[in-house]
Write a structure and sequence with these properties.
There is one protein chain. The chain has 164 residues and is mainly alpha-helical. It has a single domain, classed as Winged helix-like DNA-binding domain superfamily/Winged helix DNA-binding domain (Arc Repressor Mutant, subunit A). It is built from six helices and two strands. A two-stranded antiparallel ribbon has the order 1-2. Helix 1 packs across helix 2, helix 1 runs antiparallel to helix 5 and helix 3 crosses helix 4. It is elongated, with a radius of gyration of 19 Å. The model has no long low-confidence stretch (mean pLDDT 90). Pfam families: MarR_2 (PF12802).
Length: 164
């Protein structure tokens, strides 16, 4: 019987199969490292995993210049709207987010990070980000572009419905 991590004939010759297996192992190792980092953030911020994931989504969307609705948080975290309301209540009470009017539709609300949330998040994530930058420094632009394409392809394979 073939295990899911075994090289498969459908992957081509032995060298190709070994390369794909190596990449699968690297993806698994990255996932494990990311899970540990998320755990460190969760403990360092004294939050549960969903709260940290919501803050991370808000930081990413803010960097993209996008607003985030409570519905988008629910969809991204795959939780109910009732759970999202409780999550946002916790994050509002802790001073990490604010519910503000949507910039184009004043009837709707969006969720915005507070400066305290940014400071708290990057106090813990900043050193990790610096370590990632240092780890990537030896690679040239072509290698980074190839790695980015691979990671994006793997991310799309794992979660084809994710909006980015």
């Amino acid at each position: 019987m073939t295990r899911p991590s075994d090289p498969s004939p459908q992957w081509g010759d032995d060298a190709r199969a070994a390369a794909i297996l190596g990449m699968l192992r690297a993806v698994r190792a990255f996932g494990d490292a990311h899970d540990r980092m998320a755990g460190d953030l969760k403990h360092g911020m004294h939050m549960n995993a969903s709260d940290v994931a919501a803050l991370r989504l808000l930081i990413i969307r803010e960097e993209q210049g996008r607003t985030v609705s409570p519905h988008e948080i629910a969809r991204h975290l795959r939780i109910s709207t009732a759970s999202t309301t409780k999550l946002l209540d916790r994050l509002t009470e802790s001073g990490h987010v604010r519910r503000v009017p949507h910039p184009q539709d004043r009837r709707a609300r969006v969720v915005a990070l507070t400066e305290a949330a940014r400071v708290d998040f990057f106090r813990l994530y900043g050193p990790k980000l610096a370590a990632i930058r240092e780890a990537l420094a030896p690679f040239d632009d072509a290698e980074l572009d190839a790695a980015m394409r691979v990671m994006n392809a793997v991310g799309s394979a794992l979660d084809p419905g994710d909006v980015g």
